[in-house]
Amino acid sequence: MGTFRAIVIDKTEGGQQVAVRDFDEADLMDGDVDVRVTHSTVNYKDGLAITGAAPVVRRFPMIPGVDLAGIVERSSRADFKPGDAVVLNGWGVGETHLGAYAQKARLKGDWLIPLPKGITPSQAMAIGTAGYTAMLALIALERHGLTPDRGPAIVTGAAGGVGSVSVALLAGAGWHVIASTGRPGEAGYLKDLGAAEVVARAELSGTPRPLGKERWAAGIDSVGSTTLANLLSMTRAGGAIAACGLAGGMDLPTSVAPFILRGVALLGIDSVMAAKARRIEAWGRLARDLDLAKLAAMTTTIPLDGVLAAAPEIVAGRVRGRIVVDVAGEGS
Fold first, then answer.
1. List of residues 6+ apart from 141 with CB closer than 8 A
2. Listed residue (299, 328, 329, 327) closest to 65, CA to CA
3. In terms of domains, do 173 and 239 share one?
4. What are phi and psi of 273, to 5 degrees?
5. Alpha helices of the chain — where are they, by DSSP H?
6. Which residue range is the domain that position 313 belongs to?
7. Would you state the pLDDT for residue 13?
8. DSSP states of 195-215 as a string?
9. Is residue 107 located within the same domain as residue 140?
10. Which of 226, 271, 222 is nearest to 247 (CA)?
11. Residue 332's pLDDT is what?
């Protein structure tokens, strides 16, 4: 037993304290697979956990971080052996189970999937929960029967993590992509990812009508609240919106009109507790369909201690694209 570097959140009388410090391996939680973490990422939920802006962390002390890629060091399972490269997304890691911002993690093997062929650990974390969620959303739209010939697809929060990958995936699948953003200066970035049009977030932030002009056949929304209500009101008959985020709030000020007068569907995307088969399908599609050059263009890399500065930035909506955390410090 020894120690390793980790970001640790401790509870204090005034709230919480966050620091990069040594963590004792003996204090790891139960699990049947030990992983040497090489890379992680910074998601909106990670930002909330570290800043304390929302009650994401459910036990203390907590090592935050909901995503990791790494190498198996010990396993009591037949399906994983030392040396295997693995990926984890969600499952309460970084919330109720010690998480990814550490050089070592002890996990349940049921939470892990093999690193897909053709993707490096760094690329896997450039994708992360954000990209994996975007792929789950695209698969849900496809299973609903929607295809690019039905009309445009809209992506909200388009310059963020889920949004950036969603734009690239939809464009790669042949959709005419409308990217919605509150950062007009990112229009060139979004068009490079494949957006055909860029619209201001303000177009979707007004008081929603029960029904608006039909504008798109499909959408991926990471904002929620008024934005999602406006999306639904403007969705074409028979269309669908995949909802996977709540950056704008958890409320939904809409009516039944889009659902009963146009047959619009609202598809909920749960990436945290998704079944292993769905995860493997989504990651297989990402390895096959995501343009890795576009992924690189949306990605920046930071060291482990850089997470502390990145967390408030992502909560404030000032992060573009994806962040890879080089936990091992190997730069790969």
1. 153, 218, 220, 240, 242, 267
2. 327
3. yes
4. -115, 20
5. 44-51, 121-143, 161-172, 187-193, 225-233, 257-261, 276-289, 292-297, 307-315
6. 3-115+298-326
7. 86
8. -SEEEEGGGGSSPPPSS----
9. no
10. 222
11. 41
pTM: 0.92
In this structure, what are the phi and psi dihedrals at residue 322, rounded to the nearest 5 degrees?
-120, 150
Which stretches of the chain score pLDDT less than 50? 331-332
Same domain, 260 and 137: yes
Query: Is the CA virtual torsion 265, 166, 308, 270 positive or negative?
Result: positive
121 prior amide bond cis, ω within 30: no
As beta bridge partners, residue 180 has: 199
Cα–Cα dist 241/221, whole Å: 7
Q: How many residues does the chain have?
A: 332
Please indicate, yes or no, whether residues 230 and 164 belong to a single structural domain of this protein.
yes
| Helix, strand, coil % over all residues of the chain, rounded to 5 | 35, 30, 35
Which pLDDT score, from 0 to 100, does residue 156 have?
97
Q: Which two tokens stand for residue 203?
A: 């177009």
Cα three-residue angle 267-268-270, rounded to 5 degrees: 145
